[in-house]
Amino acid sequence: SPIMEELATFHDHAFMAMLLISSLVLYALLSTLTTKLTNTNITDAQEMETIWTILPAIILILIALPSLRILYLTDEINNPSFTIKSIGHQWYWTYEYTDYGGLIFNSYMLPPLFLNPGDLRLLEVDNRVVLPIEAPVRMMITSQDVLHSWAIPTLGLKTDAVPGRLNQTVFTA
């Protein structure tokens, strides 16, 4: 999904910042340990103190701005094509396609005896949710009994299902 692409790009961006900072700290540490030169005039180095105070603030801003952009993109609602309500139960999920005459079905995990080679244990179900491609879908997520987590990792989605609370997420596959 476009959101997952943004998340992957942000991960690469943050990783490069972390790699550059770690390299700089490693270089400073190694140069401090290996050099025999000492400078007695470093007690009044206000320019250096200013640099090592402002530089981390700039780096934090360069990391925070893309993060906030992605946060607002994930919360954006753009006229969804249809709505699916997902209700978490202790051992299964109930899905309701509310825009199509109240189509309701349950989705149970498959026991290990019914798995085919290559199926993922604890992820395979008997009835899968069918989603359209390139159409915005609104998911209304709640729970009947305990806390659950509704997730599609490849789309970059993870929303908690809380009893008595209706959470919502919008995505495009």
TrEMBL record:
MF GO annotations: copper ion binding; cytochrome-c oxidase activity
Compartment(s) where it occurs, according to its Swiss-Prot or TrEMBL record: Mitochondrion inner membrane
InterPro entries registered for this protein in UniProt: CcO_II (IPR045187), CcO_II-like_C (IPR002429), Cupredoxin (IPR008972), Cyt_c_oxidase_su2_TM_dom (IPR011759), Cyt_c_oxidase_su2_TM_sf (IPR036257)
GO cellular component: mitochondrial inner membrane
Biological-process GO terms, alphabetical: ATP synthesis coupled electron transport
Keyword Lyase appears in the UniProt entry: no
Signal sequence extent: none
Domain Cytochrome oxidase subunit II copper A binding: 79-173
Topology with respect to the bilayer: Multi-pass membrane protein
Tree of life domain: Eukaryota
Cofactor(s) needed for function: Cu cation
Residue intervals of the Cytochrome oxidase subunit II transmembrane region profile domain: 1-78
Keywords tagged on the record: Copper, Electron transport, Magnesium, Membrane, Metal-binding, Mitochondrion, Mitochondrion inner membrane, Respiratory chain, Translocase, Transmembrane, Transmembrane helix, Transport
Keyword Cytoplasm applies: no
UniProt xrefs under PANTHER family: CYTOCHROME C OXIDASE SUBUNIT 2 (PTHR22888:SF9), CYTOCHROME C OXIDASE, SUBUNIT II (PTHR22888)
Family label: Belongs to the cytochrome c oxidase subunit 2 family.
Official protein name in the record: Cytochrome c oxidase subunit 2
